[in-house]
Amino acid sequence: MDLRQLRYFVAVAEELHFGRAAERLHMAQPPLSQAIRQLEARLGVALFQRTTRRVELTDAGRAYLERVRGILAEVEEAADHARRVAAGAVGHLTLGCVGSATYSLLPTLSRRLAAELPGIDFSFRGEMLAPDQVEALHSGAIDVALLRPPAADPSLTVHTLRRDRLVAALPAEHPLAARSRVHAADLAGVDLITYSAGRHSVMHDVVLGLMRDAGVEPRIRHEVGETSTLITLVAGGLGAAVVPEPVTALALDGVVYRPLVRPTVSIELAVAHRADRDEPHLARTVQVIRRLF
């Protein structure tokens, strides 16, 4: 069905006057009258009763008007939705966040995204190691990742957001907790809790490299996959840990955080997505994340 004819019909049905309807539509009256006759011929019913003095809707015309109004409203709604999709204003995205930034970043980020992109439905997965995030990006389980950058991956688009300094997380009763800062060499002989080596954690490799650069052979006692578990074990006195500074947002009784110096080391936090993803709502989300830093 020609949408123009439907709009012509609604104009005449609402005005009940071909001249006024033609003015409303910014067209001449004869083409309007011809379009309505063609519509009636196509439908095989009379929509209007016409006399030299008045125009009235037939019963069929009244029934048709109700349905046509609904059709035109749906068409306009569909057009508006298409425009919003093209503008990146609607959609659904799942964001994965590395564990060390989950507690410090996600509360602020989720509020910012809701405020700036209210038409996009966001879901979040926290406590993800970088390798798991990369795998989830490739599988489509997540759309955007906040991660510690892995080795160069040409299939991903990666933007560095900031660099986070490393700190020592210590049991409150540990002798090193009395210091204002800790050197990497001070951790010689100290039981360590690290992120999982078996899951190829970026932080695991960073911590081992830091210790060995300081001439210390790390004494790893526990490996975990989640930041919350790691800090809980520190609070329980089972060992110390080296973590990015945002982890200090996870405050538990029994844990103290001290700056790690000599060497002072930092680690990147980045936002990543698959390089072949160019949907407008994804691009706008990445823009909001980058502006946050």
From TrEMBL:
PROSITE patterns: HTH_LYSR (PS50931). InterPro entries: LysR_HTH_N, LysR_subst-bd, WH-like_DNA-bd_sf, WH_DNA-bd_sf. This is LysR substrate-binding domain-containing protein. Signal peptide: none annotated. Residues 1-58 form the HTH lysR-type domain. It comes from Actinomadura keratinilytica. The keyword Cell membrane does not apply. Belongs to the LysR transcriptional regulatory family. Keywords: DNA-binding, Transcription, Transcription regulation.
